[in-house]
Design goal:
This protein is of the alpha+beta class. It is built from three helices and three strands. A three-stranded antiparallel β-sheet has the order 1-2-3, covered by helices on one side. The longest helix has about 45 residues.
């Protein structure tokens, strides 16, 4: 090895390290999306459970689901969730339209809809 060959590996190493970090960030972004999907599902389940009680209704459903979302999915991800509860007589249904924005241009935004339903308790 001559004196002029010593620095060639540095540029290659930095390029590979940079691309590796971008790949790791994209992978973590996908894991965070899955976490967010689980939180939205749990919030809707909690909402319909709270709203399906005999003395409760749509307002309790939306309040409980909103509380769970605020506790577990705050910040920018939480602003991408629009939820609504509807009373269908003997069933209470909660629906959330969700858009999670990707952190990198290579990671696409993820938009989906989640639903949960519970049979209402009979009024005594």
């Amino acid at each position: 090895m001559t004196r002029h060959e010593g620095g060639f590996i540095t540029a290659q190493y930095m390029a590979v390290a940079g691309f590796s970090l971008l790949f790791v960030v994209a992978l973590v972004n996908l894991v965070v999306f899955q976490y967010g999907r689980g939180v939205v599902r749990a919030a809707l389940d909690e909402g319909v459970r709270a709203g399906a009680r005999a003395t409760a209704g749509v307002a309790e459903c939306e309040a409980r689901a909103g509380d769970v979302l605020a506790d577990l999915l705050g910040g920018a991800m939480g602003t991408g969730v629009a939820l609504a509860c509807t009373d269908e007589g003997d069933t209470l249904r909660a629906t959330a339209d969700v858009v999670f924005v990707g952190w990198l241009p290579a990671v696409p935004d993820w938009a989906f809809t989640v639903e949960a339903a519970a049979v209402r308790e009979a009024v005594p």
